[in-house]
Amino acid sequence: MTNEWHKSTKGVHAGTKRSQYGEVSESIFMTQGFVYDTAAQAEARFESAGPDEFIYARYGNPTVAMFQERIAALEGAEDAFATASGMAAVNGALMSLLKAGDHVVSARALFGSCLYIAEEILPRFGVEVTFVDGGNLEEWEAAIRPGTRAVFFESLSNPTLEIVNIEAVSKLARAQGALVVCDNVFATPVYSNAIAQGVDLVIYSATKHIDGQGRALGGVILGSREMIRKTVEPYMKHTGGSMSPFTAWIMLKGLETMALRVGAQTASALKIAQRLEGHEALSKVIYPGLASHPQHDLATAQMGAGGTMIAIEVKGGKDGAYRFLDACKIGIISNNLGDAKTILTPPAFTTHQRLPLDQKAALGITPGLVRISVGLESDEDLIADFLQALDN
Description:
Blueprint: H1 7-13, H2 39-47, H3 62-75, E1 79-83, H4 86-97, E2 103-107, H5 112-124, E3 128-132, H6 137-143, E4 148-154, H7 166-175, E5 179-183, H8 188-191, E6 201-205, E7 219-223, H9 225-239, H10 245-276, E8 282-286, H11 296-302, E9 309-314, H12 317-327, E10 332-333, E11 343-345, H13 357-363, E12 369-373, H14 379-390
Parallel strand pairs: 2-3, 2-4, 4-5, 5-6, 10-11
Antiparallel strand pairs: 1-7, 6-7, 8-9, 9-12, 11-12
Helix pairs in contact: 1-3, 1-10, 3-10, 4-5, 4-9, 10-14, 12-14
C-alpha cells in the first residue's frame, strides 16, 4: 500500500514501527548496543541479522531504520543507508564503489567539499577522475569510456543552478557499464525522480531540506537493496559514518513536513525570482523556474518545478554583493540551505572560496554572486527586503 501513497503521505507514515506502548511519535532508541537472550542467539545475530534485529548502533538502530525506510519510500528506492552528514554520504557512496585503477567521470560544477573529494582524495587512492561540463552531453559521451566505473554529478549544481540531464547521462553511463551517482540535494526528495531516470545511488545531505530547521547534520545514500547492503553498508559500518538515533528522529520529524515546506519555498522562490529579474542593480537572476534559464525546459521535465534556490549576480562585484547582504533585514548570512529561514551566501568567499580564480570564473562563481535559499517567510516581505537592499 505504501507505494500507492503520495509523497506527502509517505513522509508522515512510511517506515513507522511502534513499540509495545503504541506511541504516536516515533521512539528514540538511544542505545549503542543490544542484549541477546542466549549466547547462541548472539552468534546467530552476528551470522545473519534479520530486518528487525540489531547488533550495534554503528551497524543499525530501530530509529535509524525507520528513517531509512521512510526516505527510501519517498525516493522510490529499495533501500537506504543513513549517514552522519551529507559529506559522509558523498564520501561513502564513492569510496565504497571505487578502488585503485578505477576511472570516474564527474561534473566540474560541484560543492566545494564534493570537489575536494573528487580532486584530492580519490586521486590519492589511485582513482582517475575526468571532469566535464555537466550540461554538455557531448563532453560526457567523450569522457565515459569502456571500463569507466562511475559517473558523479549534482543534478542541480551548487551554486549556479546548472542542471544535468539525469536520464541522458545515465544512458551514456549504462552503455559503457558505468554506475551513476547523483547528489540530488537541490532537487530535494519532493521533486526527485532520479531512480526512475537511471541513477544507481542517490545522495542527500539531510542537513538541508529533510531537517529543514537547522538542527542537525545528517545524510543518506539510496539505491537498490543489493547495492546498499552489499556495497555501501559494509564500508559505512566499518568506517564509522553512521547516523545517530537522535539525529534520525529529528530527520523523521523533518520528513513529516518536508513536502509542505518545500512546496511553499518553491512557490516563493518563483515569485521572488520573477520580481528581481531585470532589476537594474543585478547582472542576472538564475532560477530554473524562469523561462530565461537556459535549461528551463529540462528543469520542468526533470523536476516539475524550479526548486527552492535562487542565484543572483549583484553589479559591483564583491562590494556590491556585500552591500546587498549587509542591507538585508530578513535573510540571514550563513552557509546552510533548505532551512525554514531564508539564507544568503556569497559562494566565492565562503563555500567555494578555496577554488582558484580561473576555476571560479569558469563555473560562473563571480565576486558578485549571491546564493539565496528561500525560506518560509512571507514572499511579499522577502521581496520588499531584497528590493530595499538592492536600492541601498
